[in-house]
């Protein structure tokens, strides 16, 4: 007869890493405080942006969606309106930028110039992460994401979201 696995005791307080964050929107203040404490670059939205964390791995047997969304920026004043999303897929080692509406040709050219390709099945622009320096590719695509998001917001008469780095 197989042995039963001993389950860890359940405690009243749960850290963010231990929580089931499958469908949780993490408050921006928490995200910023945690990143600053770890000395990581922080993206600070001013208006129209939200931080969404949907996980990137399996924790305690709970599988998270793949790809997961790192950043979401509203492209107009309507909260239910068009958005642009920065996504990461650890499974396929890719960064993706997905928009609800097709951007102007100048933004499409920015994606092409950065080495991104349109993936019709994924309905997103994607690029493979560099095997030796994935952080570099991820940082470049995050900068591109904010350049495009801020450009579209500016075209729509909205203020830009600010990116703060260390």
Would you mind describing this structure in some detail?
By secondary structure, the chain is of the alpha+beta class. The strands form three sheets. A six-stranded antiparallel beta sheet has the order 2-5-6-7-9-8, with helices on one face. Strand 8 (117-119) and strand 9 form a beta hairpin. The protein has one domain (28-158). The protein has helices at 28-37, 105-113, 134-155; strands at residues 42-44, 49-51, 58-59, 62-63, 68-74, 83-89, 94-99, 117-119, 124-128, 162-164. Helices cover 25% and strands 25% of the residues. The radius of gyration is 18 Å and the shape is globular.
Side-by-side strand order of the widest sheet: 2-5-6-7-9-8
Overall 3D form? globular
Helical percent range?
A: 10-25%
Structural class category = alpha+beta
| Rg result | 18 Å
Q: Which percent range describes the beta-strand content? A: 15-25%
Secondary-structure element order, N to C: HEEEEEEEHEEHE
Low-confidence stretches: 10-15, 17-24, 43-62
Q: What's the number of structural domains?
A: 1
Distance between the termini: 55 Å
Average pLDDT reading: 74
């Amino acid at each position: 007869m197989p042995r039963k696995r001993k389950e860890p005791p359940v405690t009243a307080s749960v850290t963010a890493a231990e929580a089931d964050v499958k469908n949780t929107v993490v408050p921006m203040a928490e995200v910023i405080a945690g990143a600053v404490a770890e000395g990581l670059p922080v993206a600070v939205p001013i208006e129209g942006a939200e931080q969404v964390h949907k996980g990137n791995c399996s924790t305690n047997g709970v599988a998270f969606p793949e790809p997961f969304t790192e950043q979401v920026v509203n492209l107009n004043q309507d909260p239910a309106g068009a958005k642009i999303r920065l996504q990461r897929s650890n499974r396929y080692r890719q960064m993706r930028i997905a928009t609800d509406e097709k951007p102007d040709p100048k933004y499409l050219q920015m994606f092409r110039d950065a080495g991104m390709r349109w993936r019709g099945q994924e309905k997103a622009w994607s690029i493979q992460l560099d095997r030796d320096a994935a952080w570099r590719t991820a940082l470049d695509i995050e900068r591109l994401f904010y350049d495009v998001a801020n450009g579209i917001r500016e075209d729509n008469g909205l203020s830009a979201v600010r990116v703060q780095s260390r």
